[in-house]
Amino acid sequence: MTIFSDVAGIFRAFRKGTKPTSLPTSEPVSSSDNVPTEESATGQPSLPVLPPEIWRTILAFLIRRNGRRSIRLEDPFLPLYSTKSSPLDDPDIWQDRTTLPLVCRAWRSMTAQIVFEYLRIRSIPQLRAFVEHFEEAQDGSLPFQGDWVLRIDFKIPEPLGDSESLVPRLLRLTPNLMIYVNQNGSDYRPETQTPSAVLEALAEHCGPSLRRLEWSHVGEAPAWCDLANLCQHAPNLRTLRLTWIFSYEKPFRAKMLDLPFLHTLSLGLIPDPVDTIVELPMTWDPLLNYLASDREMLPSLRRFDVEVFPTGLRFFKVHGAKIRFFRTTNWSSPPMLPSTLPLLSNLDDLVLTQSTEYVTLPQAHTTLRRICIAPFMEEHIMVPPRMFNSAVLRPLESVLLSIDSTKLPHLEEVRLRNTGILVNLVDEPAWLLKWAKRWSFRGVKFCDMHGQSFDKIQDPDNDPLLNVVRG
């Protein structure tokens, strides 16, 4: 405890702009030196000497961004704050990144390595600065920082134009990249194809190290032939997330993709077509039919998310028995869900994205253990009470009734992810208590997004203490 309180004292001193009485060293020492035995000029004990491995661990807690190694997608059955891929960072991280390198040379080296693990690039000037910095470091006079990069998130709203070559140049300098996230372009409409040179650079320079590929935005998407070629050169890929495919026009030459370790396939909500992209496919059928052409193509598939439900069941007939986690929307799935879920014979977790539509489940499922009902968007939305009852509460009641009428012998938990439009559920304590008692009678936990059971909620209209006060 003394060591960590002393460390905290150093950080507080630097944040206040004062100098601590002594600074740590990264030189190895004997075990007898691990306790303070000397006093500084002010009469205060000097700090103990720690090995660099311990200092690096401490510094990482302060300045490391969440998600640098999150090769899997967020889990709706976990609270937001407990997921490694959470985008939320400590607000003090930026101040710590500025002050900690000033402590000593060893800390400057450690913090640099941690900072470059995860890059978020938001503009063309920022992209150019990273490229020029890494290219200058290639002379060998300094440790090559491009080797430290594990994840890059691109979110550049403006067209790259003449700067299109910067992304391949950056990828050429990050040979250990594990996670590539593309959120470029418009927030509202599909605009452009990810340049073929970008996917070629990923395949050539980062292929063996890639674990997660993600196009989770409306503005930009890859062409099928480029994506398939990249996947063929990324044998260790675990997660693939797509929002749309720019084009299927050029065929992929190989007969079958080799994706031996792909655990998660996530297919998002395809945006509405625009005049500039005439051939924008509005369903995932072309991709899913290709993946269903061979039963051995996805041997490790365990999680499947699809926002636009396929028009046929071919994919589920071929790969359904492998899937343990299935997420879909209740607005696109009602006609198909009763016939689809029985094909997922080993399903453990079902996530339904809630909208104003109703949903029908099959009569029974023998393996399903957990069901989560989540909002379409997790941003906070205020809804007037009358609209909330008709557009949210009634459809939600219908979903719960459908679950309740289904024979689910292994069901353990029904979870409401009370964010976004569902955040106002806290204003319906009587409704929540009714369903909590109903599920409890079946031995099923009915809980919120944090795993807290709703049977502990207080209904102010039936609170005995408040009734006494009211008289």
Overview of the molecule:
The longest helix is centred in the C-terminal third of the chain and has 20 residues, at 385-404. The strands form two sheets. Strands 1-2-3-5-7-8-9-10-11-12-13-14 form a twelve-stranded parallel beta sheet. It has three domains: 2-62, no CATH class; 116-303, Alpha-Beta Horseshoe (Leucine-rich repeat, LRR (right-handed beta-alpha superhelix)); 324-471, no CATH class. It starts with a helix and ends with a helix. The chain contains 14 helices and 14 strands. It is of the alpha/beta class. The model is unreliable at 1-6, 12-41, 82-87 and 465-471 (pLDDT under 50). The radius of gyration is 26 Å and the shape is globular.
